[in-house]
Amino acid sequence: HYYITNNLSFAVMLGEFAVGVFLRLATSLTPLSHWLEERVEITTPTSSWKRIEEGIALKQFGLDPYAGDIVHEPPLNIMMYSLISSYSSYFFILVDILSALLLKISIDRIHKNMVDQEDNEECHSTFEKLKMKLNEKTGYYSLLIFLFNPYSIALCASKSTQCTTNLLYAVMLYGVSINSVVLVSVVTALASYSTLFPVMVLVPIFLHHRNKALTGIVTFVVSFSLLHYTSYLVCGGNWSYVQSVYGFILTVPDYTPNIGAAWYFFSEMFSHFTVLFLSVYQVRIKENLRDKPN
Fold first, then answer.
1. Cβ distance 250 to 282 under 8 Å?
2. CB atoms within 10 A of CB 193
3. Which residues of the chain have pLDDT under 50?
4. Among the listed residues 280, 286, 248, 274, the one whose alpha carbon sits nearest the alpha carbon of residue 44
5. Within a 13 Å sphere around the CA of 278, how many CA atoms are in the beta-carbon half?
6. In the 8-state DSSP scheme, what is residue 271?
């Protein structure tokens, strides 16, 4: 009975993955994908595939992709995406499916760690036992939510680079689930190289693993430095990408309307308050981490 139940559960999960892949193929390989690429609800200047294609084209013509205000993706990312540009739709579908799978594996491992911790304690309340029982399906439900979330499907179809960032976050979570500070630090360096803000993920992780914090910090700094030194070499000894990528993120010069409130926040301010508004905007996450480090 146990063998049959396990095989049935595995078959059902395979079927759900197949449906998730089909939905992404159905949207990615149709004209709908081109419409989604233009939607400000789906893509931003820092995640737009059209801007990536522009950067690849400029690079192929021997021009500096960071000379204008089009490309806001780091050099190594541009190189990676140029390698998969011919089959980009399939690449983003694969990335999305891997993200869903890693999400489930990580949450299942975290739940197992919680159960083991509860088992080591002497007394268990009925409520706690019930809560742990209900949490057994959390990984499975997270998988379903990710696979069939319309917004996730739209991001994949539009070939938003946020899909790649999501995969890195999923790997980070896996690193947390196996208590590997080194893995988390390396992957956080990769994610921060692209979008800067993921570096803040390290704060709660290092607070939780204080005895491994120094190792994590050194690993992150070395990985992040290597990425930028390599980018410097790829750009021919030029740091112009720093302003185009990180300067764009920090100064928020693009006020194109989107589903966030930042564009309205900055478009309504007086110009002589720009530095103050930017400072308040950029430190908001740091304040949240300080108030609730756990």
1. yes
2. 24
3. 1-5, 123, 285, 289-294
4. 248
5. 12
6. G
Sign of the dihedral defined by the CA atoms of residues 196, 198, 204, 205, in that order: negative
Question: Each residue of 272-292: pLDDT tens digit?
Answer: 666 666 666 666 645 554 444
Q: What is the SS3 assignment for 149?
A: coil
Residue pointed to by tokens 């570096």 = 199
| Single-letter amino acid code for the residue at 116 | D
- Tokens describing residue 78: 């541009």
- 156: its two tokens: 């994949």
C-alpha separations of 23 from 29, 49, 149, 156, 270 in Å: 10, 20, 11, 10, 45
- Please name the amino acid found at residue 198: P
As a whole number of angstroms, the distance between CA 3 and CA 239 comes to 58
Tens of pLDDT, residue by residue over 228-285, are: 999 999 988 889 899 899 888 887 777 676 666 666 666 666 666 666 666 666 666 4
